[in-house]
Amino acid sequence: MVLNVVTGAAVRLSDSGLGCPDWPTCSRSRLTPPLSLHPIIEFGNRMVVTVLVVMCAVTVVASFFRTPGRRDLRWLSGGLILGVLGEAVLGAFVVYSKLNAYVVMSHFMLGMALVAVAVVLTLRANHAPGRGRPVVTRTGLVLSRLLVAMTVVILAAGSATTGAGPHAGGVGAKRIPIGLEDMTRIHAEIVLATGLLLLILLWVLWKANAPARVQDAGRVLLAVMVMQGMVGYTQFFTHLPAVLVGIHVFGAAMVWSTVLWLHHGLSDHRADIDIDINVDGSGTGTGTGTTPAQAGRDTPTGVGAGVGGVTDVVEPV
Question: Do 137 and 10 share a structural domain?
């Protein structure tokens, strides 16, 4: 999914947006691109989408064959393949609109939404279903949710900044009618506000003595955001070289993924196991994760434990 976003950015940054003026073929007269830079870059991005469709289809099939079965994973994997197909159709509108900046923005935001679904699917596949037991204070949860929302605003503002900038993707493409410096300033101010919010969240986590893994994830996010900010300011003061803008797009995907990873880690989740309880109270575990005895020991405070600490661990936390 990240490669999809980055190669899509490469199309715009190399002015290859109309390298293949038709869709799904490269042109009316040929399916594949000619041996020229712009058509190859544009068609390469389409091939990434094709591979994504295949991978998502395999993921959907795997979710149905998975033991124990998980409805949430089936919905997420199904949403991925529908989203990728929608991304391909929206890509056709990008071509036919002659790279209209608003359509390109929508294309980018859908790509980042798919990154989010892929991250959530990956994280949820590693534990049992359910929301989990929060390991931080309510204030920490609220601040984290606000951080996720602010990151979405950052992505939209960053996309609008590119839409107002010189990298239109092709000659004559419609731009967003706002000054580049003004849009850059708006984007930077939102980023600074989000950075301040993250610092407040880190202070709240430290003050509440949150688990070390949670605080470490927050520090990782802070480091990623600082590096992303350095790239952003450098690209602006060096007049937006295409390579740095591409790195900035990759960084945006990394910030977004790390924010979701941090937010997900604010709750403890049970290992995904399938337990059959025998008449005498003993249990046998199948699937991935811990053994039933380990699961019983890991049962959060407040959740009852039956014979041998097994009976209630199958209940959702």
Answer: no
